[in-house]
């Protein structure tokens, strides 16, 4: 079945540092890929998405590129802020017509803490 | 745009007690609806999904059940809670009601004591 593997956390950075959170996946066919963010005490918010190979999703300074050859969707940000402290989840959804269409499979989440 | 409501926001229940969590959606019709659980220190796991009134699919066998009595209402229930049912329960709905881009409600934090 489908699966998502994220780098182990927690990740602790100083403000303005470069961020990478690795994500790799296993899926049948060509899934859609997502990054969600969860701020303390809140639900999940969609951060960015990519629906086909070589697509780059971007939002709020974060970027991730859908790499089919390496089955990866790593999250990056050039300069993190204290307000970026949160839990980040990589997820995938299967294509229309498949049994996993519309259902999200999540990685285990990576806790990011940014210090001033 | 659609809005997902969940209540209660927090709940503390003793082992063996019943459970009812509610999710309602505004701004879309006949949506697919999903229940996820986030256990402490772990990722999210899909529990149930529904493509219409009275239609429920279970992803993981467990102590919980789900029902969809109305088009935009999705309920998660249990007859007798276990300690392992503690967690953060999230309802989700795709943008426009269908598709793969899901949006989440604010969640219910359940603690079973």
Q: What is the structure about, briefly put?
A:
The complex is a heterodimer of chains A (116) and B (113). In chain A, 0% of the residues lie in helices and 49% in strands. Chain A is mainly beta.
The helix count of chain B comes to 0
Gap from first CA to last CA of chain A: 41 Å
Q: Based on helices, strands and strand pairing, what is the structural class of chain B?
A: mainly beta
Task: Report the biggest beta sheet of chain B as strand number plus sense, adding barrel if it closes.
Answer: 7 strands, mixed
The shape of chain A, in one word, is globular
Q: Report the C-alpha radius of gyration of chain B, rounded.
A: 13 Å
Largest interface: chains, residues each: A-B, 23 and 23 residues
Show unreliable segments of chain A.
none
Number of helices of chain A: 0
The protein's oligomeric status is heterodimer
Order of helices and strands of chain B: EEEEEEEEEEE
Number of beta strands of chain A: 12
Q: Give the distance, in angstroms, between the N- and C-terminal Cα atoms of chain B.
A: 38 Å
- Mean of residue pLDDT values of chain B: 92
- What would you call the shape of chain B? globular
Query: SS-based structural class of chain A?
Result: mainly beta
What's the overall average pLDDT of chain A, rounded? 91
How many strand elements of chain B? 11
List strands and helices in order, with pairings.
The complex is a heterodimer of chains A (116) and B (113).
Chain A: E1 3-6, E2 11-14, E3 19-21, E4 23-26, E5 32-38, E6 44-50, E7 56-59, E8 62-65, E9 75-77, E10 86-93, E11 104-106, E12 110-115
Parallel strand pairs in A: 2-12
Antiparallel strand pairs in A: 1-4, 3-9, 5-6, 5-10, 7-8, 8-9, 10-11, 10-12
Chain B: E1 3-7, E2 10-13, E3 19-26, E4 33-38, E5 44-52, E6 55-58, E7 65-70, E8 73-78, E9 87-94, E10 102-104, E11 108-112
Parallel strand pairs in B: 2-11
Antiparallel strand pairs in B: 1-3, 3-8, 4-5, 4-9, 5-6, 7-8, 9-10, 9-11
């Amino acid at each position: 079945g489908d699966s998502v593997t994220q780098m182990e956390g927690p990740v602790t950075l100083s403000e303005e540092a470069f961020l990478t959170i690795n994500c790799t996946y296993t899926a049948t066919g060509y899934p859609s890929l997502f990054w969600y963010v969860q701020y303390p005490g809140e639900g999940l918010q969609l951060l960015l998405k990519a629906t086909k190979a070589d697509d780059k999703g971007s939002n709020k300074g974060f970027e991730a590129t859908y790499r089919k050859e390496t089955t990866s969707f790593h999250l990056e940000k050039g300069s993190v802020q204290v307000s970026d402290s949160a839990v980040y989840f990589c997820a995938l959804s299967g294509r229309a017509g498949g049994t996993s269409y519309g259902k999200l499979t999540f990685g285990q989440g990576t806790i990011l803490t940014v210090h001033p | 745009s659609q809005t997902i409501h969940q209540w209660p926001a927090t709940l503390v229940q003793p082992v063996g007690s019943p459970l009812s969590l509610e999710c309602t959606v505004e701004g879309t019709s006949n949506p697919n609806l999903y229940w996820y659980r986030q256990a402490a220190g772990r990722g999210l796991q899909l529990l149930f999904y529904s493509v219409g009134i009275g239609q429920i699919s279970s992803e993981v066998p467990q102590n919980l059940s789900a029902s969809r009595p109305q088009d935009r209402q999705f309920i998660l229930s249990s007859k007798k809670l276990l300690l392992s049912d503690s967690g953060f329960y999230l309802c989700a709905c795709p943008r426009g009601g269908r598709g793969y881009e899901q949006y989440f409600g604010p969640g219910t934090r359940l603690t079973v004591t």
